[in-house]
Amino acid sequence: MSANAPAIGQPSRWILPAALALVLISFVAAVFLGIVDIPARDVLSALTGTGSTEARSIILDIRLPRIVTGILAGMQFALAGLLLQTITRNPLADPSLMGVSQGATLTVTLFLLFTVYLANPDSYSVNELPIAWLPPAGMIGGMAAGGIIYLLAFRLDLSPLRITLCGIAIGAVLHAIAIGLIAGWGSARIEIILEWLSGSLYARTWDHALFLLPFTVAGLGMLPLIYRPLNLLRFDAAVARSFGLSYRRQFSLVLLVSCALAASAVGAVGPIVFVGLIVPHLARFLAGRHFPLVLPLTIVLGAVIVTLGDLVGRLAGGPEEVPIGVVTALMGVPVMLALLRRVP
C-alpha cells in the first residue's frame, strides 16, 4: 500500500492548480475570441467600461453573460453527474438517467404550447415567446421527474439498480410525450424548442446566470455536509450502515442535491449531453484513487469543458453557431465508447 502512496499523492500537488489555470485560460479565450473580431485593446477597454458602444455591448451584454452561465451550468452538470454515479454505483449515470432532462423537456414544451399556442394561436412572432420563464419551467419539470422516480424507487425498496431502471423507463416515456407534442405542434415556432433541446448558450443573458447562481452556491455549500456520506454511499447499503450511516436519509439528501443541480442547469441552458457523464470519469482518471481530489476536480473540469465547448461551437459555426450540446456530443461519443470497453 505504501508503494502506491506517492503515485496517489503526486497528482494532488499540481493537477487542481493546473485545472484552475485552465479555467482562467478558457475564460480569457472565450472573452477575446468570437464571431465578431474585436482587437484585444478594444476588449480590454470594454471590460473597463471605456471602449466603444459596440464593443461594450458585445463583450458585456453578449459574451460575458453566456460565459458565466456556461461556467455555472458546467459546474452543476458535472457535480450532479458525479453524485449520481456515486450513489447509484453506475459509471454510466448522468442527469438524463434520473429523467431530469426529459422532465424538463416535457415541461418546457407544455409551457410553450399552453402559453403561446393555445393563448394566441394566430401569433408566430418569436419575440412573443415567454422565454424568460423557460428556466424555472424546465427546473420544475426536472425536479418533478426526479421526485417521481425517487418515490417509485422507495416503494420498490430503494436500490441503485431500481433507481437506474426507473430513471430509464420514466425518462423514455417523458421524452416520447415531449417529442410527440413537438411533432404535433407543427409550427414554425418550434425552432426555439429545438434549439433548447440541443443544449445551447445562445442568447443567454445575465438573468440566466443570476438564475443559476443560487443553485450553484447552495450545491457547493452542501458539499461539506454530504462529503462523508458520499464516501460511504459508494459501498453497499449494508457496508454503509455498518459505519453508522443513515443510508436512506443520506441517499435521499444526495439525490435531492443532484436533481436540483441538474434540473436548474437544464432549465437554463437545455440538456447539454455527456457533461455529467464524461467529466467525473475524466476527474477520476486524473486524480487516480485520490477521492478527495475527484470532487473539486470534477467541478472545475465541468466549467472548462462547457466554456471550451461553447467557444468551439461559436468559432466553428460562424454566424450560424453550433450548439454546445452538439459539440459535447461529438466530444463525448469517443469517451463513451472507451468507457463501455472498460465496463464489465
From TrEMBL:
<keyword id="KW-0812">Transmembrane</keyword>
<feature type="transmembrane region" description="Helical">
    <location>
        <begin position="324"/>
        <end position="343"/>
    </location>
</feature>
<comment type="similarity">
    <text>Belongs to the binding-protein-dependent transport system permease family. FecCD subfamily.</text>
</comment>
<feature type="transmembrane region" description="Helical">
    <location>
        <begin position="165"/>
        <end position="188"/>
    </location>
</feature>
<dbReference type="Pfam" id="PF01032">
    <property type="entry name" value="FecCD"/>
</dbReference>
<protein>
    <submittedName>
        <fullName>Ferrichrome ABC transporter permease</fullName>
    </submittedName>
</protein>
<dbReference type="InterPro" id="IPR000522">
    <property type="entry name" value="ABC_transptr_permease_BtuC"/>
</dbReference>
<keyword id="KW-1003">Cell membrane</keyword>
<feature type="transmembrane region" description="Helical">
    <location>
        <begin position="131"/>
        <end position="153"/>
    </location>
</feature>
<keyword id="KW-1133">Transmembrane helix</keyword>
<feature type="transmembrane region" description="Helical">
    <location>
        <begin position="96"/>
        <end position="119"/>
    </location>
</feature>
<feature type="transmembrane region" description="Helical">
    <location>
        <begin position="67"/>
        <end position="84"/>
    </location>
</feature>
<dbReference type="InterPro" id="IPR037294">
    <property type="entry name" value="ABC_BtuC-like"/>
</dbReference>
<feature type="transmembrane region" description="Helical">
    <location>
        <begin position="208"/>
        <end position="230"/>
    </location>
</feature>
<feature type="transmembrane region" description="Helical">
    <location>
        <begin position="14"/>
        <end position="36"/>
    </location>
</feature>
<keyword id="KW-0813">Transport</keyword>
<keyword id="KW-0472">Membrane</keyword>
<feature type="transmembrane region" description="Helical">
    <location>
        <begin position="251"/>
        <end position="279"/>
    </location>
</feature>
<feature type="transmembrane region" description="Helical">
    <location>
        <begin position="291"/>
        <end position="312"/>
    </location>
</feature>
